[in-house]
Amino acid sequence: MDTQGVNLTNTSPILLPKEENGRPVEAVQAEKATIQYCLYARKSTEDDERQALSIDSQIKEMATYAQNEGLLVTDIKKESHSAKMTGTRPVLNQLMADIRNGLFQGVISWAPDRLSRNAGDLGSIIDLMDNGYLKEIRTHGQIFTNSPNDKFLLMILCSQAKLENDNRGINVKRGFRAKCEMGFRPNLTPLGYENDHYSGKGMKKVFVDKARAPIIKQIFEKVAYEKYSGRDVYEWLKNETDLRSRNGNVLNLSVIYRMLNNTFYCSLFEFPQGSGKWYKGAHEPIISRELFDAVQKKMTVAPKSKPGTKQFDFTRIFRCGSCNSGISAQEKFKRYKSGEIKRYVYYHCTQFNNFDCNERYLREEKLVEQLSCLLKNVSIKEIRSKEILKPELDKFMVIKTTLQDYQPNNSEIEQNIDLSGFIRYIFQDGTKDQKRELIGCLNITIYLKNRELIIK
Fold this sequence. Notes:
41% of the residues lie in helices and 16% in strands.
């Protein structure tokens, strides 16, 4: 090699710029100053994340990290929500929308699985990085930029979290099957039994509640042998026993019916519910299978020829003025000596909010009379605005003009139209939807109390 004319001894050393993550420090610091970060903290309430840091701990750790790194954190977002399902976290959805709108260019989070444990949310995050909206994700000990290697590593870590969730779900189902085959139903036992809170995992048993079990057995016996209805059982429990729920409340009617249909009391159970997989329970039965079957026969109601087809014109419109329950209806048929059969419809409180509500029944004819009085103040303009009523109003106007000697214009007809006659026409010959639409013109809540329609 020819070195002539070159002074090697006095040549100054070439100083290369310091680098951070393969990039010049000056460029990295300049980018840090321009990136606005959002600190995102999440804690699931489910058992699979009990070991994760609490939200406050995550915020404290990552805020300290951001301060040490000189990062500009402009907002902190936190939520308690599982990350297993795609698009179900409102705070994360808002965060991604803010990133797309340019409010943030970076995200700080404790770990990648805080951001995503499913493929859908992960794909949305990677898409934000691909399109340049999201420049950087920082976690405890890792930095993910919009580079192929960083995005690949981020996808691997989040996919690993998804794999853990999937495997955990399989293991939980296998554990449930094993527990059912041993005769123990997962979840809380029904009223009348007590769970074992002291034995070790996998060794917990179910014990009969000595105080409640005798009363529950009496419930089944009264329905099977004494012809008690669900309402009779409710009144008996409320007035003559001290049976209460675990929270100390009086058992409502729906709880009583669920109890009467629960095979757990005769040591049988289905798991999962509706799966058709039945197991023999290892717990002591409160009632016999024969008693349970006898109750089911008493509670069985013969289906109607056309179930669910009975419809009334004015149900689900009014409220009860005493207990604020809905108003239902029922029909009665009366045969007179002449052989004529007449149909009568009665409207009454459903007693949903108060079983003891004693509001009296109101005949449909009386109900229509009172509705007609309320509708007298409705304007023709309001009626014409209803798409269902407009054709009937035009038809009624045509009938009116044919009975007159002259042909007035529409405005004159509307000024002189017999509104009461139109209301009677709809209530008498209109369809169910037309009647309901006409009542809707009032734009008020109507209550039924003491057989009178009132407005509160």
